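Q: Given only this backbone (154 positions), what sequence would you predict?
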């Protein structure tokens, strides 16, 4: 009887050791992919919504992926619900598609004051402080140029 209890507890312990990693395989294995996967909180813990198993890929994309090991892995990432691939085709209006194409075709190359403001905010400084820092930098650069010119003239 004691042997049966020891054997049963060993089997249960082995199953408990194997079960959590098997349950963890439902999440994407790569953190670079998992950031794009929707995780829904459930009573049993976070879960990836399953939806359909695979979204259909267009023939053009499927042909470009190929049948090698890398192609199969890319096909899994591109079509599997476990990796966060959309399970329904997303449609946009013709106007939105035209605006997206025109935005890509001609990027705005003019440096606006918003870019300067964003740079000032990124440093965490107020604009008046940033102005004084720029003036100090220009003064130091001017002094350096003046010292170099004076040295050359001697």
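A: Predicted residues:
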């Amino acid at each position: 009887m004691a042997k049966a209890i020891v054997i049963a507890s060993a089997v249960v312990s082995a199953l408990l050791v194997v079960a959590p990693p098997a349950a963890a395989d439902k999440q994407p294995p790569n953190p670079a992919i998992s950031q794009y996967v929707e995780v829904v909180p459930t009573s049993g813990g976070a879960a990836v919504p399953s939806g359909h198993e695979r979204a259909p890929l267009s023939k053009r994309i499927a042909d470009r992926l190929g049948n090698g090991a890398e192609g199969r892995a890319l096909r899994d990432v591109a079509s599997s619900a476990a990796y966060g691939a959309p399970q329904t085709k997303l449609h946009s209006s013709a106007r939105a598609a035209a605006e997206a194409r025109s935005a890509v075709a001609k990027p705005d190359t003019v440096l606006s004051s918003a870019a300067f403001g964003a740079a000032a905010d990124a440093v965490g400084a107020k604009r008046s402080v940033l102005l004084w820092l720029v003036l100090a930098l220009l003064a130091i650069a001017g002094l350096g140029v003046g010292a170099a010119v004076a040295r050359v003239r001697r």
